[in-house]
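Exam prep: given the inputs below (a chain plus adenosine-5'-diphosphate), describe the expected output before reading on.
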Amino acid sequence: MAWRFFSFLVCQLAAGLLGWWLGLARGAAVGLVSGGMLWLALDTWRGARMLRWLRQGAVSTSPPAGGMWGEASSRAQRALRLRELEAAEARHRLEEFLAAIGASPNGVVLLDAQGRIEWCNQTAADQFGIDPQRDLMQQVTNLMRDPAFAAYYHSGSFGRDIVIPGPRSLPSRPIKLAVHLHPYGEGRKLLLSRDVTVLEQAEAMRRDFVANVSHEIRTPLTVLTGFVETLQTLPLDEEERERYLTLMAQQAHRMQTLVGDLLTLSRLEGSPLPGPGEWTPVTELMTQCAQEGQALAKAVGKSSQQLRFGEAPAVEIAGSSRELLSALSNLVSNAVRYTLATGAIEVQWRALADGRGELSVRDSGPGIAPEHLSRLTERFYRVDRSRSRETGGTGLGLAIVKHVVQRHGAELAIDSTPGLGSTFAIRFPASRLRAMLSPPSGTPAQSATESLEG
Ligand code: ADP
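Solution:
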């Protein structure tokens, strides 16, 4: 500032002296005015240059002037550079933030105060069938036409989310989306969406399961209660009492079996996968199943059934012997229960050409129509409800088999012809099999290979 004042004085003094030299007092006065004007013109020119420089926004080039204008330019340049840096950083942060939202597995849509789409991530675009470029600034209610969503949007009450079908939902492949609106800023809204198809399916399965279990338990309980009331109120003779008590014991046993199967299922679902350290000899499995099968056949009055066990190999399976036994027992139990007393059942081990091993249960029972095959392993699925109950079935046997098979990396193959019989085969991968370290003494399967009549 001092320099500016000094330069103005020097300029005026020089012009005044020049005027004095040319025309004494009058010349000096003219000189002083001219000097001041010249200084002002020069100063205005430099100011104009700086203004041009600022207008062009050429912050990267050096300021065009020195002195006070120069300093103002430098300071303006520094301030502009700082702002540019801050803006670049903010842009970078925004891009990172959007990229993070973009990578979210949940859908995110930003709506303006008029309900138009300002931005959406790819997940939301996929879920709602929105084009993130073309549909920008479109009314969200024009694009998401589900009546439940429209009602929710216009209600203004967003305390909870709603579940709507996705636009690509089909009756055969339903898609369910949970949508939640969150108001923010001045009338703006944040729309969050989540694909809850699997959750909804699991919830529906849970509901069905609870309903099925309740139904299965209620039936024998109702029968039991009825018998208890009869015993309490009617004067029965010894023979009748005995008959009622036998029926009651049957119903109690039915409930016991059901609870047992339910516990087995929950254990299978909740426990860690069987480790590779436990080895179960196939011969042991076959021997135990032979004994159980024979006992069951006797118990259900089918002692004449032909129950044959093939030769047991000197092979071990990696996995839980308890689970493997439970799976094979269920298959043998089904075969015994569904096959007539005059029928035949054959359990055998076969080494497949690709190194896998197959444990199969074949029966000459009623067989199963093809349309039921894919659903047999569902919990409580029965081809013939009354026959399953009559024979003491719970509807959970094959569900248990499926779980055990999956937990051992194996596969379950069902082959059945109505009227001719069925074969249930468990195929174990080669990686789970090994030759027995000490081969079995005698063939346990042979001892089981007998007709129950014999
Ligand atoms: P359940 O306790 O009713 O036998 P499962 O899950 O073991 O339940 O079997 C499901 C259904 O599959 C049975 O209800 C039955 O209709 C059918 N099924 C299973 N095994 C056989 C078989 N060996 N022969 C004919 N039908 C069978």
